[in-house]
Amino acid sequence: MRILFALTTALFFMISTHARAEITRVEFVMGSGKERMILFSHEALAHKRMFFLDTPDRLVIDFPATNARPLALPEDYSGRFIRQMRFGKFNPSLTRIVLDLNQQVTVLGSYAVPPSGEIREWQYVVDLAAAQGGSASAIVTPKTAAPPPIASKPKPKPLIVIDAGHGGQDPGAIGASKTLEKNVTLAYAKALRKALLKTGRYRVALTREDDRFIMLGERVDIARKLSADLFISLHADSNPRRDARGFSVYSLSETASDAESAALAEQENSVDFLGGMEEIKVEDPEVADILIDLTQRETMTKSSEFAEVIVASMHPKVRQLAKTHRYAGFRVLKAPDIPSVLIEIGFLSNPEDERLLASPEFRDLVISSLVGAIDKYLGIEE
Length: 382
Fold this sequence. Notes:
The structure is a single chain. By secondary structure, this protein is of the alpha/beta class. It folds into 2 domains: about 20-140, Immunoglobulin-like (Sandwich), CATH 2.60.40; about 160-380, Aminopeptidase. The protein is about 30% helix and about 25% strand. It has 8 helices and 15 strands. The protein has helices at about 1-15, 180-200, 215-225, 260-270, 285-290, 295-315, 350-355, 360-380, and strands at about 20-30, 35-40, 50-55, 60-65, 65-70, 80-90, 95-100, 105-115, 120-130, 160-165, 205, 230-235, 245-250, 320-330, 340-345. Strands 11-10-12-15-13-14 form a 6-stranded mixed beta sheet, sandwiched between helices. A 5-stranded mixed beta sheet has the order 5-1-2-9-8, with no helix packed on it. Strand 1 (about 20-30) and strand 2 (about 35-40) form a beta hairpin. Helix 2 (about 180-200) crosses helix 8 (about 360-380). The protein is elongated.
């Protein structure tokens, strides 16, 4: 594993200068007998090759290695040409998009459109029409054309997924006054959702809205299926040291920053046993594979940056644990393509923290600080 990690890291530095473009999303615009696919990216895109395969009919587009979230056919796709969209790295130097077709099509044109007006990203456009006789595999792909004006949907607001830790048969930590961690995290999750929605700048989803048990892998899956921009897991655990108290934030690392963080991660990762698991395992094999992928490395860096912004944005009246930003292998942070952090609002094992966690005034301080941190990290102004 260490050798593989070293090779993966080396590979990242070798090709990073050629992987600057990042595909963020895909949209489709329908016309009369035509369909337009639009890939949005931070940099200009240009395909290396585009070709058809038959039996079954497919359109394949290869780009120089790009970083991207997993792309799929949007749920609101209303066209008739495409059955399924697949995306992935074909090899270290090529990123491949495969469109499984319902019928034979021709490519009318493909071109890049620079940012303009309210659209701040580059667009790579592919125009499709029904094939007029012949087989799709015999169609010659046209060269890049001059970009005509296009109509596109406005960019959606960032989606924040908030995970209230524990729930159901897993109460989490229990304070001296019988405060249950699962109730604290749900209260804070709902308060954070309310505050974010009030700004009008975000979409927000919770992994749970009531007292139910959710497997750790399922929490990750919820965020990935929703294509979240950020994932925040809220906790208020116990600490073996009764005097330990204060706010802290964790980002993912294969090596814990300290023994205390490692023990906390082990404690959190074991909660799936309460759901009837015989052993801890990754439900989605794709997650296990991507943990050593370049995408995961980049996401870990972004997660760490987000954690640092949270620490810097926290209100002075919110006491912070020494070395506030810590690292550990929390399974709930292992979404390979979403910056993710786990926040310990405080420790229920400490009587003073238990009192503060139940205080509406303290909760408002924490929530307002988190909203400010999210604004700053995503570069969204009021």
